[in-house]
């Protein structure tokens, strides 16, 4: 299947000419950033202190929600803080409490609405999962996908590390999810997959991932013709071809699927490193200031992190990019199922369906 | 502000009317936001990619934007009571000089107000903003204002067109049903911001929609705060930690040892 053909309309919009005046300086910048990047440290998943709390749309039960709301009604935090600063008259604090209780009443109505919405979403997901069950058959997935008018060329999935105690959690669960998505991508003909996981757990467990992908592909495609794959870590500039036993000939450079692993380090910190290197080089007159333009930075970041994905699928209950590389989210279509927490084929297929209906104008 | 053209098409109006309806919607949304106590609002008025549109449409948009901003700044409109200062964020070199002069005049006349900010992203793309910031930094390093080792994410933020006035957005609303960012605020919203995609076209985006978006956000925010309080994972400062654990371990008393080995 010629998947390149179908992407032409997207490629046109940002086709970059490779006529570079300073190809040498580009490589120089790339190498220097690469060196600096390798010294950066990933944040372990146990360390939650440097992340802001995000709206958790589903973890609370109804009772904790209502309990929290009542706590807020009785001890409003915002009120206490502002009163310390400017001791207001009793009159204004009475009116504050009246308005505050009206607000909390609205919150209570909201929590009831949320309860119904949550139940509805979960029921819908359950039905969808029953309706779209791939049963590990690539032909089924392929026939689902072939109904669509267009598919993305590069797809990206945001996965979440769950704690070991949870079902399908830990490193094993993450590897399982990643390899499952890789198998779905292969069955639907998408040749590029980027997996984003905030803490970069997968980067540290490449042997497990390679084995897991191999097993999954055998389960989907049989032992006789396992598709070829390569796992890339752009941040460390390393790539691993095939499973653990390295069965490919060393000169092979065309693979059925390329899997890239990225984490929060490939986001802001890469841009910061790039800025450092470029400003250093321009100070030592190795890079002229005129060369620093949008095209140059784009080329560098493509080398350092990868191409921008056409579609980002989030397997989480609410939309949150979690520090996904900002440069790369420019025109990416985003998809997530409200209140969904699992990596399931139904979500993947619905994301592709959504993608096939959208039109990218790029300003026009 | 997306969906003006589709609004005009659906209603059978000329394209110009669609943009006019969008400009009117802006005033309503702004009033609602400022009444609810939002400090800063940024609107994506014109993307750099929008220069690909026909010249007549671009002119219409520029004229409308100019007159709308003049209305907000000078006339006795409902928005005026909020004492807002209007600031242009974006690549000014791309604005025609006559429009730019008018806009800068508006900017200047409202510069004294500090209660609220209205940022007009015009003509703006986030990638251009990042490139702008990087070149600024390079320039500063070259002229020895800044050391290479001092460059952090904050440095990049401070050199945006915002000049450090907006680090992270709490809520980003994209109207008219598209689920992508289209090169807007990529840096500001990719970490723990709430991105809300609405199916409403921008001219139809009224008080109710604005209120609902902000209300939903505040509902979840309240629950998070309460949860953090209950679980006691609220951030405590180093000072508080030091106060709480100031006693060294050796000074704590304990019952006498009872052991078969010799206690030293």
TrEMBL record, chain A:
Enzyme class per UniProt: transferase
Biased composition annotated in UniProt, kind: Basic and acidic residues: 1-15
Cofactor dependency: Mg(2+)
Keywords, sorted A to Z: Endoplasmic reticulum, Magnesium, Membrane, Transferase, Transmembrane, Transmembrane helix
InterPro entries documented for this protein: Nus1/NgBR, UPP_synth-like_sf
Entry GO MF terms: ditrans,polycis-polyprenyl diphosphate synthase [(2E,6E)-farnesyl diphosphate specific] activity
Region called Disordered, residue ranges: 1-22
Reactions that this protein is recorded to catalyse: n isopentenyl diphosphate + (2E,6E)-farnesyl diphosphate = a di-trans,poly-cis-polyprenyl diphosphate + n diphosphate
SUPFAM superfamilies, per database record: Undecaprenyl diphosphate synthase
Single GO cellular component term: dehydrodolichyl diphosphate synthase complex
Associated pathway: Protein modification; protein glycosylation
Coiled coil: none
Transmembrane region(s): 96-116
PANTHER family documented for this protein: DEHYDRODOLICHYL DIPHOSPHATE SYNTHASE COMPLEX SUBUNIT NUS1
Similarity annotation: Belongs to the UPP synthase family.
Protein name as annotated: ditrans,polycis-polyprenyl diphosphate synthase [(2E,6E)-farnesyldiphosphate specific]
Organism field: Ogataea philodendri
Lineage, highest ranks first: Eukaryota, Fungi, Dikarya, Ascomycota, Saccharomycotina
Automatic annotation (TrEMBL), chain B:
Descriptive protein name: Alkyl transferase
GO CC aspect terms: dehydrodolichyl diphosphate synthase complex; endoplasmic reticulum; lipid droplet; membrane
GO terms (BP aspect): polyprenol biosynthetic process
Name of one Pfam family that matches: Prenyltransf
Cross-referenced InterPro entries: UPP_synth-like, UPP_synth-like_CS, UPP_synth-like_sf
Alphabetized Gene3D superfamilies for the sequence: Decaprenyl diphosphate synthase-like
Molecular functions (GO terms): ditrans,polycis-polyprenyl diphosphate synthase [(2E,6E)-farnesyl diphosphate specific] activity
EC number annotated for this UniProt entry: 2.5.1.-
PROSITE patterns: UPP_SYNTHASE (PS01066)
Keywords for this protein: Magnesium, Transferase
Family stated for the protein in its record: Belongs to the UPP synthase family.
First-level EC class: transferase
Superkingdom to which the source organism belongs: Eukaryota
């Amino acid at each position: 299947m010629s998947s390149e053909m179908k992407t032409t309309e997207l490629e046109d919009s940002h086709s970059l000419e490779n006529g570079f005046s300073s190809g040498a300086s580009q490589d120089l910048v790339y190498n220097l950033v690469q060196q600096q990047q390798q010294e950066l440290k990933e944040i372990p998943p146990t360390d939650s202190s440097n992340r802001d709390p995000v709206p958790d749309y589903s973890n609370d039960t109804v009772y904790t929600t209502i309990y929290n709301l009542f706590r807020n009604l009785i001890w409003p935090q915002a009120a206490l803080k502002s009163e310390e600063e400017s001791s207001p008259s009793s009159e204004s604090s009475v009116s504050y409490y009246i308005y505050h209780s009206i607000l909390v009443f609205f919150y209570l109505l909201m929590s009831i609405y949320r309860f119904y919405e949550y139940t509805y979403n979960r029921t819908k997901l359950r039905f969808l999962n029953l309706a779209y069950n791939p049963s590990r058959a690539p032909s089924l997935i392929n026939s689902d996908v072939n109904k669509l008018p267009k598919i993305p060329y590069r797809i990206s999935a945001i996965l979440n590390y769950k704690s070991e105690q949870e079902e399908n959690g830990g490193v094993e669960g993450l590897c399982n999810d990643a390899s499952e998505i890789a198998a779905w991508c292969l069955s639907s003909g998408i040749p590029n997959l980027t997996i984003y996981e905030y803490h970069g757990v997968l980067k540290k467990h490449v042997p497990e991932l390679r084995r897991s992908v191999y097993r999954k592909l055998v389960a989907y495609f049989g032992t006789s013709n396992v598709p070829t794959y390569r796992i890339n870590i752009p941040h460390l500039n390393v790539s691993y071809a095939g499973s653990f036993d390295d069965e490919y000939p060393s000169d092979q450079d065309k693979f059925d699927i390329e899997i890239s692993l990225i984490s929060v380090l490939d986001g802001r910190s890469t841009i910061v490193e790039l800025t450092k290197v470029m400003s250093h080089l321009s100070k030592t007159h190795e890079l002229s200031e005129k060369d620093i333009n949008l095209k140059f930075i784009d080329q560098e970041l493509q080398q350092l992190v990868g191409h921008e994905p056409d579609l980002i699928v989030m397997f989480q209950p609410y939309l949150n990019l979690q520090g996904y590389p900002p440069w790369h989210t420019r025109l990416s279509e985003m998809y997530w199922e409200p209140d969904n927490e699992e990596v399931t084929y139904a979500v993947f297929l619905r994301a592709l369906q959504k993608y096939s209906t959208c039109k990218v104008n790029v300003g026009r | 502000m997306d969906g003006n053209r589709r609004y005009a098409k659906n209603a059978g109006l000329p394209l110009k009317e669609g943009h006019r309806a969008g400009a009117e919607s802006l005033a309503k949304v702004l009033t609602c936001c400022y009444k609810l106590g939002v400090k800063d609002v940024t609107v994506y008025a014109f993307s750099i990619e929008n220069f690909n549109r026909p010249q007549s449409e671009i002119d219409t948009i520029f004229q409308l934007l100019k007159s709308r901003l003049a209305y907000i700044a000078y006339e006795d409109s409902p928005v005026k009571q909020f004492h807002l200062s209007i600031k242009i964020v974006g690549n000014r070199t791309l604005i025609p000089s006559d429009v730019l002069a008018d806009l800068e005049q508006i900017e200047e006349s409202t510069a004294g107000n500090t209660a609220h900010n209205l940022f007009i992203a015009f003509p703006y793309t986030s990638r251009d903003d990042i490139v702008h910031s990087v070149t600024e930094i390079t320039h500063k390093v070259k002229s020895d204002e800044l050391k290479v080792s001092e460059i952090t994410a904050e440095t990049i933020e401070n050199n945006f067109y915002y000049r450090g006035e907006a680090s992270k957005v709490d809520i980003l609303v994209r109207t008219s049903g598209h689920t992508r960012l289209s090169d807007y605020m990529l840096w500001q919203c990719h970490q723990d911001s709430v991105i809300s995609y609405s199916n409403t076209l921008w001219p139809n985006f009224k008080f109710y929609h604005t209120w609902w978006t902000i209300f939903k956000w505040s509902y979840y925010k309240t629950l998070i705060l309460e949860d953090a309080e209950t679980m006691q994972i609220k951030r405590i400062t180093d000072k508080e930690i030091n106060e709480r654990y100031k006693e060294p371990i050796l000074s704590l008393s304990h019952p006498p040892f009872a052991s078969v080995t010799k206690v030293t």
